[in-house]
Amino acid sequence: MLRVLVRKELLDNLLNLRFITLCVVSIVLIFSSIVVLTGLHNEDVRDYHNRLNTQDAFIDQYGHSNRISWMSSLFREPSRYRPLVLGIDRDAAQENFVNNPVPALLSKLDLVAIVSIIMSLVAIVLSHNSIAGEREDGLLKLMLSNPVSRSTIVLGKFIGGVITLAIPFSLGVLLGLAYISIDAEVQLQGTDFGVFGLLLVLSYIYMTAFYGLGLLFSARSRTSSAAVLKSLFAWVVLVLVLPNVSPFLAAQMYSIPSRAKIDRELNKIESDDRDEIFRKRVQQLFQTTFSDLTLIRSMTKPDLQKKLTDDAAFRERFALYQKANDDLVREVNREQRRIADAIRESFHNQSHRQEVFATVLASLSPLSNFVFAATDAADVGLDSDAEWESQASAYHRVFGDYVELRYREEKHKNPAFTSNDYLDLRARPRFQFQQMPLSARIERILVPAGILMVFNLLFFAGAFVSFLRYDVR
């Protein structure tokens, strides 16, 4: 009997003009979104390589240890899953080499946005009259006049409706994936298909939750018009209100300065203030310990090199000055870095508390849990962003050690070498972000995916219990 009811629900939906319209809209929207984002992804990949090449050429030609930190800023390679999931844009503040402002004004729809907004609405539209509508038409009394239980009826409607909802979505996604696979510029790997599978499963779970929500309000309404109003109100709260209010409430609870303000303050401390302190201390060094070397400040580099070659006593004295100067550079850098690191740590801790609080509040919505899970599965979410920061910090430490080693080597060869002189860094270590394996991604999304499953169970259980006591008259 369950199979008959599922088949009946499928046929009712598939032969309905409303379903056909929704099916066409869903397929066109999903496929066109993937096509557009694939083209944008290819442009971003080319732009990324252009940035790297320009940066490499600049460092190879003008690199020196005093300014290498800003010269070697890291760029994050565009995710291979960007045709499906946009996620966090790490280079949002960067100027694109092809500076076209139009795309920035027009919002882009990725698969996550389509599923979380459009497909959840489609689920509401398909499910709101599943029970209330059939009560109005008298079909429920007819069905219950046969030897079939209410639990079987509601289960059949749920299964049939979910399968109906999955048909247009699956067709659109499969067409989009086929387009991605034949695009010569998108290099897919074995792990990618596992990620695509994860995204599909998460999408099905999310859409099923909203189908259950529509079924719940249909089972608690006497008319389909009342059911759709209740369902849409719940959709607005769960999809639009809770996810958007959560960051605002978290910001009120944990107020922190803007990232731009912190960056300006850090730049002042580690650049402008550092240089000013260093200049004053060098001047004090000349006035106290090395007053006999004041003349070197007005000497040209060839003259200084000649005097170092001809005058052994001067060379020995200059070596002592250079050692004191290098110690001074390290001391000033250490002092300013300590101040900057304290600011960074304080900002990081405040940001983390705000982020955790906002995440907990947002988790009261199915949409937030779906977005958290989908973006982390595609390695462009909050946890992925933290992993990128961790790997970038580790690389900066390795790179800093390499620059220091190269500086000492050049200093040993040429005592007149300074931190503002050209430093050959062509053999420097390069940064390569190590993406998480599929097993780690699955483990990372277990919590939000589990909460989504809880929403499914709650909504379906509510619909099930409500229908058991539903008055079909």
Could you walk me through the main structural features you see in this protein, from its secondary elements to its overall organization?
- The protein is mostly helical and 473 residues long.
- It has a domain of 274 residues.
- Helix content is 75%, strand content 0%.
- The chain has 17 helices and no strands.
Kindly state the percentage of residues in helix.
over 70%
- Judged by helices, strands and strand pairing, the structural class is mainly alpha
Secondary-structure element sequence? HHHHHHHHHHHHHHHHH
Main pleated-sheet profile: none
Termini, distance in Å? Answer: 23 Å
**Which strand-content bin applies to the residues?**
under 5%
Query: What is the alpha-carbon Rg in Å?
Result: 31 Å
Low-confidence stretches: 92-104
Averaged pLDDT: 84
Question: Helical stretch count?
Answer: 17
Report the strand count.
0
Given the C-alpha coordinates, what overall shape results?
elongated
